[in-house]
Amino acid sequence: MDLFDWELGGGDRADGGPGGGCSWVTAVLIGVLVLLAVLVHSFFGFLRGLL
Questions:
Q1: CA distances from 26 to 3, 18, 19, 30, 50 (A)
Q2: Is the four-CA dihedral 11, 12, 13, 17 of positive or negative sign?
Q3: What separation in angstroms does the CA of 47 have from each of 11, 17, 25, 37?
Q4: How far, in Å, CA of 1 to CA of 27, rounded?
Q5: In angstroms, rounded to a whole number, what is the distance separating the alpha carbons of residues 49 and 35?
Q6: What's the pLDDT at 43?
Q7: pTM to 2 decimals?
Q8: Staple partner for 5: which of 23, 31, 39, 46, CB 3.0–4.6 Å?
C-alpha cells in the first residue's frame, strides 16, 4: 500500500506487480465499515437481551 495514494483504486504505478494494490483510504474505509457492523450487531444483541 502506498501511504500517499489517496485514490480509492490504489496505486497506479507500473511496478506494482500482479494483483493490484489497496490504498490506505480503502483500508481505513473497510476497517471503519467492519467496526460499524460489529457495533450495530452488538447494539441489537443488547436490545434483544432487554426484550
A1: 11, 18, 15, 6, 36
A2: positive
A3: 43, 48, 33, 15
A4: 9
A5: 21
A6: 93
A7: 0.55
A8: 23
Cα 41 to chain centroid, rounded = 17
Q: In the structure grid, which three cell numbers stand for residue 31, read together?
A: 476497517
pLDDT tens digits, residue range 1-51?
555 555 555 555 555 556 566 788 888 999 999 999 999 999 999 888 888
pLDDT of residue 31: 94
All cell numbers assigned to 2? 502506498
Total residue count of the chain as it appears in this document? 51
Question: Please, what is the Cα angle at 31 between 46 and 26, to 5 degrees?
Answer: 150
Give me the residue label for grid cell 441489537: 44
